[in-house]
Amino acid sequence: MNHPDPKGVNRPYGRFFLPGPVEVRPEVLAAQLQPMTGHRGPDVQAFIGELQTGLKDAFRTERPVFIVPCSGTGLMEAAIRNGASNRVLSLVNGAFSKRFSSIARQCALEVDEVSIPWGEAHDPDQVSTALSVKKYDAVTVAHSETSTGVLNDLQMLSEVVHQHEGTLLLVDSVSGAAGAELQTDLWGLDFVLTGGQKAFSLPPGVSFGVASSSMIERAEEVGGRGYYFDLVRYSENIEKLQTPTTPALSTLFALQVQLRLMAEETMEGRWLRHQKMAERTWAWVEEMSSSGIRLKVVAAEGHRSPTVTAIQVPDGVSAPSIVDAVKDRGWVIGGGYGKLKPTTFRIGHMGEHTEDELEGLLSVLAEILV
After folding, report:
1. How far apart (Å, rounded) are the C-alpha atoms in residues 341 and 332?
2. 178: alpha, beta or left, given left = phi > 0 and alpha = psi -120 to 50?
3. Separation between Cα atoms, residue 90 and residue 108, nearest integer Å
């Protein structure tokens, strides 16, 4: 069934409020229809230069932004392979921060975890205590934990991590970047990665990473960092406005259009729009609870992501059945993830959505729940 929209968006699969992949604007999708070109030469260098300007603004960095044809998980592995050779401390508070830990183990590193209940954010003091016990090459953390909707305080965590000389902070901001405030340089983040299919509002297939000078120096020292995700090669190539291998050109054509749209909105405007949608979602949960439908936001108050909200349903209610009922009405939300699958659903209020569109979804959910 097709669900037309005043903005001209075709929705054969329903109106998406998934926590990724997200809806893509028609003009961004259409950009992918451009004919192919060679990926070397001055024309493409100028094209990549324009992309760099927009991406640097999104990440708030003066460092080059790597453009990599892979999922966000690919750059999580890149972070590990380039940022550590011995021991990693993983901050785990959900499924995707756990994935970072698992990747480090799969790369044959020694891994310790600071594991806290899902729904909570990491306490910098607790992290400081863990760092005082052993010497770690790197600390991994999820900025916006997509499984729970928790937002970790990167600025505070970075201050703690960098009190320990030689320890890098590696950040998964897959559902954070371009929706939640992110200050890569100001906060002193050593590696930040994201995927295009979340708040960047792109088709899947491209990811972005920013490495500090300390991260590149570490990568130069690490043996066995691999070839495809060798950040030293990426760094050398992007300085020439090139990529080390053939880029996903069609997706980059889409990125060019999307970055122009983002520049019109400004990053501050984009962060504010996401925050307003998140706050409306949290208020709706309170309204439903006050009316007798005992919903609960999984993420602790004060530590909630502006891009995704995980909502716990009352005892005896099947969260998957709510997801199915929403889909029957032409809307799509995310099911719970990992161990939260039976008891939660997730709303991805990220990308190009507006507060008015969100109100439509919340009205449908209210009808189903009541």
Report:
1. 16
2. left
3. 14
Q: Which amino acid makes up residue 333? A: I
Q: Is the dihedral of CA 253, 254, 257, 262 positive or negative?
A: negative
Parse the chain into domains and list their residue ranges: 15-25+267-369, 26-264
Return the CATH number of 26-264, one of 3.40.50.1700, 1.20.210.10, 3.40.640.10, 2.40.50.140: 3.40.640.10
- Tell me the two tokens of residue 263: 């520049």
The answer to whether the predicted template modeling score (pTM) of the entire model surpasses 0.90 is yes
At 319, the amino acid letter reads: A
Residue 9 pLDDT > 60, yes or no? yes
CA distances to 19, 51, 274, 298, 323 from 176, in Å = 11, 19, 10, 17, 23
How far from 305 is each of 103, 175, 200, 271, 365, CA to CA, in Å? Answer: 24, 9, 15, 11, 20
pLDDT digits (tens, 9 = 90+) for 73-112: 999 999 999 999 999 999 999 999 999 999 999 999 999 9
Strand partners, 150: 145, 304
**Tokens at 343, concatenated:** 């008891």
Distance, in Å, from the CA atom of 369 to the CA atom of 329, rounded to the nearest integer, reads 13
Query: Is the separation of the CB atoms in 23 and 201 below 8 Å?
Result: yes
Residue 268's Cβ-count burial label (10 Å; 0-12, 13-18, 19+) is exposed
**Residue 294 CA, distance from chain mean position:** 29
Q: Taking 80 as the threshold, does the pLDDT of residue 154 lie above it?
A: yes
- Determine the topology of domain 15-25+267-369 in CATH: Aspartate Aminotransferase, domain 1 (3.90.1150)
Q: Which residues contact residue 133 at a Cβ distance below 8 angstroms, ignoring those fewer than 6 apart?
A: none
